[in-house]
Amino acid sequence: MTRLLAGGLALVVGTEVLAWVLGGTRWLLPASGAAAALVLAAAWLGVGRGRHRGAAEPVTDDAAESLQRWKSRTESSIQWADATRADWDRHLRPRLAREFVLATRQRDPAALAATGRIVFGEDLWRWVDPSDISRTGSREPGPGYATLEEILRRMEFL
User: Fold this and answer.
1) How far apart are alpha carbons 9 and 3 in whole angstroms?
2) One-letter-per-residue 3-state SS of 19-56
3) 3-class DSSP state of 73
4) At 158, is the secondary structure helix, strand, or coil?
5) Within the chain, what is the greatest distance between any pair of CA atoms?
6) 49: pLDDT confidence band, cut at 50, 70 and 90?
7) What is residue 127's predicted lDDT score, i.e. its pLDDT?
């Protein structure tokens, strides 16, 4: 639309200059009017086409798009399970701990730890416990996908 109006302005000015150079001052007003009418007609038709084109476009499926983004985030999160312990602590542990706190509604750290040991057992709780972040284990291997799957399976029952 901006290009159309800029081109139209150039057409009107060009028409006026041409009429003035050729010496036909009596044709100056009709030529400018015709050029302006041509530009307005093109703009009107362009706006009309834009409305019909917008109506014909399919409506985007926000639910499908949202599901696709969720699936992509989940797949990238699952990949962190087979990475290092530092990656697990940085990416998966906060999410798992947050979900566990929300599911159990425990705010007290001691009660949260006791509930975690009951639900997960000692072996799995150490991978969910928000206070068990390793400061030195950046190169240690993470627990793996099987551990993540078992943690998620147990969290389903909460």
Assistant:
1) 10
2) HHHCCCHHHHHHHHHHHHHHHHHHHHHHHHHHHHHHHH
3) helix
4) coil
5) 99
6) low
7) 92
What does the radius of gyration of the chain's CA atoms come to, in whole angstroms? 34
DSSP structure class, residue 136: S
The answer to whether the CB of 31 falls within 8 A of the CB of 15 is yes
Quick one: 148 exposed, middle or buried, by C-beta within 10 A (0-12, 13-18, 19+)?
buried
pTM over 0.85: no
| DSSP H or E stretch at residue 155 | helix 145-156
Least confident of 8-12, 91-95, 106-110, 149-153: 8-12
CA atoms within 13 A on the CB side of 125: 13
Q: Where are the domains of the chain?
A: 2-56, 66-156
CB–CB of 77/92 below 8 Å?
A: yes
